[in-house]
Amino acid sequence: MKLNNPSLLWQTAFSILARFAGVGLNFAVAIIITRTLPMNEAGMLFMLMTLVTGISLFSRVGVEQWLVREVAGLPEHGLAQAQLRHLYSAFRLLLISSIVFMLIWLAISPVVKRNLFDGDIQLAWLWIAALGIFFFNLVMTNSAFMKAAHHISESLLIQNALPAICMMLVILVFWPLFPVDQNYLWIYTLSVVLAGLVSFYWLRAWLPVLKSSSDPISRQSVLQSSLPLAPVSYFAFMMLWADTLMTGWLLNNEDVALFTVAARLSFVSGFFLGALDATIYPRLLRMHKQNPDRLRKFFWQATLLVAAVLSAVTLVIALVGKPVLAVFNEGYVQAATTLVILLLGQLVRGLGITFSFMFIIREQVRYLNSLLFIALLANLLANWLLIPQYGIEGAAMATLAANLLLTGGVIVFFFKNRLLSSYA
User: Which residues of 175-202 are buried (b: 16+ CB within 10 A; e: fewer)?
Assistant: First the structure.
């Protein structure tokens, strides 16, 4: 099969470049952290970043998936007004859900301090980090909106590059304070607040139609539509980060730092996967609604493209893994084996992404949710069994096993349910 769709390749190339810029900036931040802070303190900061990202995701209750699904398929007539109406409706729900999860964060902070930070984190900085939930939601929702509006590069820059840029700027401003007395924790929170505010800059093109937008969709209606989509993101996040959380629970802050650096390197393939996602998914949605006769061919082209790109990325990173780990700090080279195992897990996971899209498009998300839930349980069980015996390599093995189960199940049910059967 030839990849004879220049538009797909061209848009994917732009997406990958934008994603790669985000990768570079995020690695710059991680290198600053690992070279400035002791390993145990770097582990605390990485854990806080993981928690803010994860709790924010849960608080969005699937709104960003709903936004992409609804906005990507809107008709051309009155497009800007309709897009803005959906975005405003999303924000109305997110304000309430974010506040609820911020209150939960405050309530469970003492338990989190004891179990995930070895009791070392200052509780005041953990409480202040609750602000990151709402402002990170602004970043991700604005990014999802730009993705749905087919501004792919802007979407990727908001999601990946903007938080890293803001983090580096705030670190620069407060550099003398950064490594002292856990100030790096509130500096991170401040950078998330800044990123959330700056993310609205890319929405300026919709300002002329701001006053002419119609009444928003009710919060209840948005919630009813978004909740069925939420488990896909929840389980996907837990599949990525459950290992980090379990490492923090079963091991110590130093192991969290080692595992997180290896995981972030392995996520380079995930960044490429995200660029492919941002290019492929909106186009599949549009073809499903407007040009179904073209979808089957495009689906297989996209699947082949994903396999080719991710295989190449996995091979390259595996070959240069040790020298790259040494850039963070010589002490991180000991995570090289963990990195290779995680890379294989990312590759296996990525091979099923286009098949997963079709479950969402054909509104058969319950199959995907069930598979994700089973894979997550397998991941948690494998972590529980393997981490005490094999350490961070055990956490990586748990990821690989769970992704094999997930991708295999997705492909089996894809063919069993004949998800392409209605397309020419």
Answer: eeebeeebebbbbbbbbbbbbbebbeeb
Nearest to 89 by CA among 149, 141, 146: 141
Sign of the Cα torsion 297, 303, 307, 308 reads positive
Calpha distance 15→20 (Å, rounded): 8
Domain spans of the chain, in order of start: 6-416
Query: Coil, strand, or helix at residue 351?
Result: coil
Average pLDDT, the chain: 89
Residue 368 identity: L
Nearest Cα residue to 303 out of 356, 371, 365: 356
Nearest Cα to 67, choosing from 162, 158, 151, 146?
A: 146
Question: Structure tokens of 84?
Answer: 């803005």
Is residue 239 classed as helix, strand or coil in its secondary structure? helix
10 Å CB burial of residue 121 (0-12, 13-18, 19+) is buried
Lowest mean pLDDT among 259-273, 334-348, 370-384: 259-273
Q: Which of 133, 420, 160, 394 is CA-nearest to residue 297?
A: 420
The residue among 102, 101, 107 whose CA lies nearest residue 123 is: 107
Radius of gyration of the chain (CA): 21
How much of the chain exceeds pLDDT 70, in percent? 94
Ranges of beta strands (E only) in 286-379 are none
**Phi/psi-derived region of residue 218, left when phi > 0, alpha when psi is between -120 and 50, beta in every other case:** beta
Instruction: For residue 61, give both structure tokens.
Output: 């209750």
Give CA–CA dist 14/140, Å, rounded.
20
For 29, half-sphere exposure in the C-beta direction (CA atoms, 13 angstrom radius) is: 25
Residue type, 144: A
How far are the Cα atoms of 135, 225, 228, 310, 369 from residue 232, in angstroms, in the given order? 22, 14, 8, 21, 6
Q: For residues 7 and 13, what is the distance between their CA atoms, to the nearest angstrom?
A: 10
Q: How many CB atoms lie within 10 A of CB 25?
A: 20
**In which band, very low, low, confident or very high, does the pLDDT at 5 lie, cut at 50, 70 and 90?**
very low
